Amino acid sequence: RTLQSPTIVSFNSQIHAAAKDRNLALAEQLFEKMVNAQLQPNLITYNTLINVASKSGKLGRAWEWFEHMAAARVHANDITYTALV
Fold it and tell me: Has this prediction a pTM greater than 0.85?
């Protein structure tokens, strides 16, 4: 049996778990690990980060993630905008 490399799904699951605990720092660390593993963050990744930042009272940070998402050419959806309100 071989160990599988992390995937976008496994990272998103870990980021989501950190977000449920409102642990923005851990979610951001996991994002960095994802990028370092040469995986491309997707809409789910960014929406989760924006949501946890917003729910943690760090609206400025949520908007920074929104800008990061736009720079990565990931298109926002209704969930993104709801998290920013």
Answer: yes
